[in-house]
Structures are given as C-alpha cells and as structure tokens.
Amino acid sequence: xYFNGDKLHRxxxxxxxxxxxxxxxxxxxxVNAQRHLPQARPYPTNDIRVCLVxxxxxxxxxxxxxxxxxDRGHKVVALNNSxxxxxxxxxxxxxxxxxxxxxxxxxxxxWDIPSNNGVKCKYFIASQVIPELFDKLEGRDVxxxxxxxxLGEKEILDDQYLTPYFWVIGGSTxxxxxxxxxxxxxxxxxxxxxxxxxxxxxxxxxxAQPDGxxxxxxxxxxxxxxxxxxxxxxxxxxxxxxFVKANGDHFNLNVHxxxxxxxxxxxxxxxxxxxxxxxxx
Length: 281
Fold this sequence. Notes:
With 281 residues, this protein is an alpha/beta fold. 30% of the residues lie in helices and 19% in strands.
C-alpha cells in the first residue's frame, strides 16, 4: 500500500513488467520460443557465491564491497542496465540477465562483455523480451529462460517444445527472477547490490536511467522507517517479502546498502507479515 494525500491506495501487484502490455509479451514469447537456443535448466546445488547487481543508488556506497567480492572470484551477475556500470568500475560480470520487454533493452548490450579469466560472459535472456534483442546478441553465449505467469505463456511454450522445459519462479522484477533463475542453476548463496526498491534523496538509480524519471512517488512506511518509493518499487518490495517468505529456506540472502529490501532483512522475519503501509496508519 502507499499513501497519497489523505487517501490510502492499494496497488495491484502485477507479475509481469508493469510497462508492457500482456499481448506484446505473449507475441514476444511466441516468436522467441522458435529460436534454437539453449534453455536454462536445473543443475546440482553448489557453494559458489553470486553477486546480483541492480541499478539502485546504493551502488555508489557499496562499490568497494562489490569489487572486493569480484577480486575474490565470486560470480557477478549484471541485471538489466547495470552491466555498463560494472565495467566502468572495473568489475566484469560473469553473466547478464535481461527480463524487460521494453525497447530500451537494446541499449544495454551495445558491446560484448569481455571474458573473465578466459571465460565468456553468459547472457540469460527472458523469452518475453523483444525479438530484436536476441538478434542483437547473435554470436554471444546466450541462454533463454521463461517466466510463466498464468497469462497464456504456458500454452505457447507447450505448443513449441516437445521436450520438457523449465520456467523461472519470482516476482515482477529482474532481481527476483534472477534469484529464481540462479537457484535453478544450482546457486544458493546470493549477495544483492544496488537492489534498493526506493529512492535515496532524489536518486532512483546510480546511473542515468531516463525511463525512471517523472514517476509518481509516495512516502511508504516499512518496518518502522519511511521510504520514498514509486509504485513499481512498492510492487518489488511486496513481491520480495512474499518470495522470501515462500522460498527463503532454499537460499541464503545478503542485501547490501541501506534500501528498503536491506532494511526488511535486517529487521527480521516478523516484518514479512507486517508488510508496507501508509505512514499515517
């Protein structure tokens, strides 16, 4: 929930990208499922630590921690538009995950991420993205994964694949799907960087993100602190609480920075029940 003036509003929590019509997503899945690309599939559980890097403003405060983990050989995974930020700070992602079906994704893969110790970067791309993104990634080490949200994706995928395929659990954002994706791939230890789900001051990202500008924001009470959040950020925080509550026994999660998600984790499990509310409540 969020507070706007003297009224308390409930946000409808979508399980797909909030900025993309469902029909467009289904059309993308239908086209992309015909590509002969390797699919994300289950692997045995391992003890390798994975650093998932979003674009939240706390990246500016935690870059030294992230670089230290990279220097120690931990896997760094760039989410959506954070790959360039990683490279600009001397951090080479081992993988790049893209979920959004928006046209802006084409600007996030303008060049191939350099190899790390001779190992090429792997691109994990959701079947719901625009087909032009797969075209642009031709020749790179690309894997497809699927999000099934009960909107018709399963019927399309069932028609396309004669052999079993696997879909990735999670919520409405790339962060939550990335946790589900890499748990499917066998990883269980996750560090989250730049995944704040709130503004810090007037910043919504650590780098320029034009499509994040001009969004309505509200003050939201979460675990005894008030945060400035957009509707999409509230949706992610709510999905995060639901996701961890349902699946938290299957992975170990450490959220860096001082955003909403880190605060929820630091305050303890009882706040997963309390959720988000208006400061007036």
